Amino acid sequence: MSRSKIKYYDLRKNWRKVKRHLDNPRVADTLVRDFNKFTYGHWRKRFTAGQVPFEFENCDWWLQHRGRHPQFWRYVKHGASHWLVNFALELAQLVEPDRKWRVITDKHSTVWDGEDTLFEFNFLAFGIPPKQCFELAYEHELKPGQHRKCGYPDHYTVEMKQLARDRALIGNIPASNDEAMMTQTAYRISDLPVGKTIAYQEIRGGRLTENFPPIIFKSVH
To answer: How many Cα atoms within 13 Å fall on the side-chain side of residue 184?
Structure first.
């Protein structure tokens, strides 16, 4: 397979076909099981049946979009790919059951049919090319239908401290344990150029991008 030919499954165009399976118990239960680990680990907030990941979005990738938001955005959460990939896998297997969908995972996690298509919510919404999505995920390939194990992420305060240290490494700014300085550092990540910003947000498995108020990564849309 030529990676240059890799493409996303068109969730916007095929949303009616996808939407009919969202209430399937296996799909809905997988979403609650995994994403609740994400929200509870970071903020001690529960994610329950009837909620959608976008309710917990705190990054500004969507602010410059004009017009109505695509419906699939409701299932997007910036930086939470590891906690959404099993949901996407279950959904893909119902939407296109003749394909051998499997999880590929590394710094990013996504669902691949083993040929030329990714069933991907986050990076499709952000406008990140499918080739880059594939390259950031293609380190470990699970068996078709196999779930990726995911635990509870660190509380956001732990990540704030690490973000300040990593910002110091990238931008040569002294790290600080002072909370005000760490918050300022988090906002200044948006000063990074596009390429470095995208690379940065994948550090530590995409876990550094979910813990702060909006307007962190202005260059990723």
So the answer is: 10
Task: Tell which residue, 215, 218, 206, has the closest CA to residue 77.
Answer: 206
Residues 42 and 106 in one domain: yes
Residue with tokens 């990738």: 61
**What is the pLDDT, as a whole number, of residue 155?**
83
Over residues 153-169, the pLDDT tens digits come to: 888 888 788 778 877 77
Among 92, 116, 141, the domain boundary falls at 141
The answer to whether residue 164 sits within a structural domain is yes
Kindly state whether residues 137 and 163 are assigned to the same domain.
no
First to last CA, the chain: 28
Cα–Cα nearest to 86, from 101, 96, 97: 101
Pair 137, 161 in one domain: no
- The predicted-structure confidence for 114-153, as pLDDT tens digits, reads as follows 999 999 999 999 999 999 999 999 999 999 999 999 999 8
The model's pTM is 0.75
Express the helix, strand and coil content of the chain in percent, nearest 5 each: 50, 5, 45
Q: Single out the residue in 118, 141, 164 at which a domain terminates.
A: 141
- Please choose, from the candidates 153, 157, 156, 173, the residue with its C-alpha nearest in 3D space to the C-alpha of residue 165: 173
Residues 199 and 135 in one domain: no
